[in-house]
Design goal:
Blueprint: H1 12-15, E1 25-26, E2 30-31, E3 33-34, H2 45-57, H3 68-87, E4 95-98, H4 101-115, E5 132-136, H5 145-154, E6 157-161, H6 174-177, E7 182-188, H7 200-209, E8 213-217, H8 229-232, E9 236-240, E10 251-255, H9 257-260, E11 273-277, E12 280-283, H10 297-313, H11 315-334, E13 339-342, E14 353-358, H12 363-372, E15 375-376, E16 378-380, H13 385-391, E17 396-400, H14 407-424
Parallel strand pairs: 3-15, 5-6, 5-7, 7-8, 8-9
Antiparallel strand pairs: 1-2, 4-10, 9-10, 11-12, 13-14, 14-17, 16-17
Helix pairs in contact: 2-10, 3-10, 4-5, 10-11, 11-14, 12-14
């Protein structure tokens, strides 16, 4: 490998000290090389300590009760909302806490489905026969299946942007696919398989020109590059805490305020109501309208700690570090005969996720050999089966890098792939 990491101030070996799990020895006393952050990231002590501190000192139901603990829980929860909003360039009242990016996307899909039955104030969000919903061939199932279901419920037509041979969206189809019947465009910012970073702003501008709404799946981008939702031009942006050093069980939906105000609720119950009588109910304004039930305050506090950790490192430094690792990994895998990277072969407009196949070896077997050597990758179709169908492959092995990975981790990956070839071929 001739490429080198050029950000001397960003030292992953120092960063790893905040992640005790990365010091584990596994299998036959092998060093843990964690290359599965696209599935879920590891959590630094700062996040674990913040969540634990909440339970130790402030545990109560946020937005319930007038006692001091309840007040402290509410303050922690709403402060976390402000922190998250600042991280993506948004207003706090545009941030909705959900359980995951998947729930965030479903929230929008069901709101659009329910808009047709919820009164005239929601009319501009209605989807029905003759309308079109546009997705892409590279979507995670979480940003595909909800729109399939919305189309089935409403009689709308689902269309998609195809993939090119090198793992990018076929931009020549945009003019054909985005038209006066398009009601919504749903697109991933960064593919969880191909690593491709899509031209969201250009897509959003085309969609807005015909009056369509744009939802961006940011689960794979928000942890790895600076994000400003206004600059992206999106109307909705969804992401999950657990992929950005935060806790499991909490996600985020950002939505433009004027759209959130015109959306009917997804879940109903406590916390999201304004007034309840036996024969009628009115709902609170967003974001509370979409946060039924007891708020996940401990997880929100943990997410805020993750945001502060990332901000302290600087997202521009995180992005540069991962870009350098990706360059090294593309070169290392490219030097191995029989290895094919599925997706862009350069670092231009791509993130630090590399899916690959090895001639003559099933990806599951590649993953097993890597695991025996302490290298944790994901194998399968990665909840994006249409990508495998597009390229005529049953599955891939996928290595995904993050801020705590190093050049030695790239070397371990390449050595593990060569070991699989020696064993099976």
């Amino acid at each position: 490998m001739t490429a080198s990491l050029d950000n001397a101030a960003f030292d992953p070996e120092v960063i790893k000290k905040d992640f005790p799990i990365l010091g584990r020895r596994i299998r036959d006393d092998a060093r843990l090389v964690y290359l599965d952050s696209a599935a879920t990231s590891q959590k630094p002590l700062q996040v674990l300590d913040a969540e634990r501190d909440f339970y130790l000192h402030h545990n109560a139901a946020a937005h319930r009760g007038a006692h001091q603990l309840a007040e402290e829980a509410t303050e922690g929860y709403e402060s976390a909302r402000e922190t998250v909003a600042g991280f993506v360039g948004a207003r706090a009242d545009e941030i909705v806490f959900t359980r995951s990016a998947t729930e965030s996307i479903n929230l929008v899909a069901y709101a659009m489905s329910n808009a047709g039955r919820a009164g005239e104030e929601y009319a501009d969000l209605r989807v029905g026969p003759g309308d079109e919903i546009l997705v892409t061939e590279m979507e995670h199932h979480a940003n595909l299946v909800p729109w399939q279901q919305l189309a089935a419920r409403t009689g709308a037509t689902l269309r998609w942007v195809p993939l090119t041979d090198d793992g990018r969206l076929d931009a020549t189809t945009f003019d054909e696919l985005i038209g006066e019947r398009t009601r919504l465009v749903a697109v991933t910012h960064q593919s969880n398989v191909l690593g491709t970073v899509n031209p969201v702003r250009a897509i959003a501008d085309r969609a807005h020109a015909v009056g369509a709404v744009v939802l961006v799946d940011g689960a794979q981008s928000v942890a790895h590059q600076p994000i400003d939702v206004a600059e992206l031009g999106a109307d909705f942006f969804a992401f999950s805490a657990h992929k950005m050093l935060g806790p499991n069980g909490i996600g985020v939906l950002w939505g433009r305020r004027e759209l959130l105000e015109r959306m009917p609720p997804f879940l109903t119950g406590g916390s999201m109501i304004e007034e309840v009588r036996m024969d009628r109910t009115t709902f609170l304004a967003p974001p509370q309208r979409f946060e039924a039930g007891v708020p996940m305050a401990p997880q929100a506090v943990g997410l805020a700690a993750a945001v502060r950790y990332l901000e302290a490192l600087g997202m521009e430094h995180v992005e540069a570090h991962e870009n350098a690792l990706t360059r090294l990994a593309l070169e290392a895998l490219g030097d191995i005969d029989g290895v094919t990277v599925v997706g862009p072969r350069t670092t231009r407009d791509r993130g630090a996720t590399l899916a690959f196949t090895v001639d003559g070896i099933h990806p599951h077997d590649v993953g097993q050999v890597l695991d025996d050597r302490g290298v944790a990758v994901r194998v399968g179709h990665h909840c994006a089966r249409p990508i495998c169908d597009r390229y005529g492959i049953p599955a891939t092995a996928r290595a995904s890098f993050y801020l705590y990975n190093s050049q030695d981790d790239v070397k371990a990956l390449a050595e593990g792939v060569r070991a699989a070839q020696r064993y099976f071929l």
